[in-house]
Amino acid sequence: MQIFVDGQELTFPVLLDETGAVAQTYRARAVPYSLFIDRQGVIQTLHIGPMDEKLLEAFVGPIL
Question: Which of 10, 11, 34, 41 is most buried as measured by Cβ atoms within 10 A of its Cβ?
């Protein structure tokens, strides 16, 4: 996992759910599966499938 992250030169934290506990909590049933959570801890968007920069900005922008 870390090799992939390093190779992509990502500048944000990438967390690995090693035990599956987070996937179970959020009922993740697909990969990739992205949740966008605001500062109050409320899920604002759920996205299943690949994501490009434009889509990422569309999801993150309203939360910021």
Answer: 34
- Rounded-to-integer distance, Cα 7 and Cα 44, Å: 29
Residue 47, both tokens: 């996205």
- 50 preceded by a cis bond (ω within 30 of 0): no
- Beta partners for residue 36, in sequence order: 45
State whether residue 34 is helix, strand or coil.
strand
Spatial distance between the Cα atoms of 40 and 49, rounded to a whole number of angstroms: 25
Instruction: Provide the β-strand partners of residue 43.
Output: 37
Q: What is the pLDDT of residues 45-55, one digit of tens each?
A: 999 999 999 99
Which residue pairs, CB below 8 angstroms and at least 24 apart, start in 37-46?
A: 37/63, 38/63, 39/63
**Tokens (6 digits) for 49:** 């499938």
